[in-house]
Write a structure and sequence with these properties.
It contains twelve helices and 13 strands. The protein is of the alpha/beta class. Helix 2 links the parallel strand 2 and strand 3.
């Protein structure tokens, strides 16, 4: 039987995008019956992986030393699947290699970026690839724009929506309970998420609070707090930190709208999570977000606060006037993105490479 190695050690980071990608893809791969290959998962906690997936996979414990050439994995698998473009762990030998690209690291200096180590490492990964998968057309086009892509098979395989059930346990109460109407967003608070533009927008929409779930111990989070104080909206901005799956469903279900003004996204998963709840979505008109949100989202073309507030107010008024028609469209859009479909497409890529 053919052997496939999934470089999946990021599954340990379930509060981050790469960890979620690993987890949900592997969940879906585990449901594929009687594949003609054997997958080995690479993870730090192999006991937890085995509890999750049993005999569906084989397991290999990951160690940070494996990023160094002397300690690389020497077994010659029939296929190595690198699950994201930032991974430093590589096989010791030249074996068939599938690379999944989520988004390229931000090009800070377009005139001299290729000399930066992170970009050189990505180019090396592209060079060794036997095939490349991208999570969006934007991820593919931006890779071609800035890097030399080898003449190998390329595929766009969209992420699935991990949130398939919108029901909330009866009587459930989150750790933070809103007391006013609110807008919701989620993600680690970093500069590229552009949450600070939402704080500035609040000045022009006094009837709403803003709730943001996700890691909030960053420098960008401190800057956001200082901006809220300067603008006098600190009592309406709630940074609630990492939240559970049940809490996330609660905040999606009860928000007035989902707001996501990110500057760069390889995919933008929260957009379709919010749509599954039939909630109006307001997001940035850039990178992959229009591709994911389609005609069902409302887009900001720039981030001037009053303009953003006007787009939000107009979009909410339109939604409330046409909710019976718009809610089903939002939900249908979200259901187009399926991890079972994604896993089937990855399986087809595996089989084409193993042949």
């Amino acid at each position: 039987m053919k052997s496939i190695f999934l470089e999946s050690h990021n599954i340990k980071n379930l509060h981050f995008g790469f960890g979620q990608f690993n987890y949900h893809l592997i969940n879906a791969l585990a449901k594929i019956s009687a594949p003609d290959y054997q997958i080995t998962l690479h993870g730090k906690d192999t006991n937890w992986l085995q509890e999750q997936y049993g005999n569906a996979f084989q397991y290999k414990k990951s160690f940070s030393l494996r990023r160094y050439p002397l300690f690389r994995i020497r077994k010659k698998y029939d296929l190595w699947h690198c699950l994201n473009q930032n991974i430093k762990i590589e096989p010791a030998s030249a074996i068939p290699y599938l690379l999944t690209v989520h988004n390229i690291t931000h090009i800070k200096n377009p005139d001299n970026y290729i000399h930066e180590k992170v970009h050189q490492r990505f180019q090396e990964k592209l060079n060794r690839s036997s095939a490349i998968t991208y999570i969006s057309e934007y991820a593919k086009s931006s890779t071609h724009q800035f890097f030399n892509v080898p003449n190998v098979p390329e595929y766009v395989i969209y992420n699935g929506n991990p949130m398939t059930d919108t029901t909330i346990s009866k009587g459930f109460t989150p750790n933070f309970t809103p007391t006013r109407r609110y807008l919701f967003s989620i993600g680690q608070i970093t500069g590229r998420k552009n949450f600070i533009s939402l704080v500035r927008m609040l000045v022009h929409i006094p009837d709403y609070d803003l709730i943001i779930g996700g890691k909030n111990t960053t420098d960008a989070a401190q800057q956001l707090k200082e901006e809220a104080i300067k603008l006098g909206v600190q009592d309406r901005v709630h940074l609630i930190g990492n939240i559970s799956g049940e809490e996330k469903k609660y905040f999606f279900a009860h928000c007035e709208a989902f707001v996501f003004p990110s500057l760069r996204e390889g995919f933008g998963l929260p957009v379709i999570e919010a749509m599954l709840f039939g909630k109006p979505v307001f997001t940035s008109n850039n990178t992959s977000l229009p591709e994911v949100g389609g005609d069902e989202a409302v887009y900001w073309d720039h981030y001037e606060p009053q303009y953003m507030a006007e787009v939000l107010s107009g979009g909410l008024e339109n939604f409330r006037s046409n909710e019976e028609n718009l809610r089903p469209k939002l939900i249908a859009r979200a259901k187009k993105f399926s991890w079972d479909i994604a896993a089937k497409q990855y399986t087809e890529v595996y089989q084409s490479l193993l042949k």
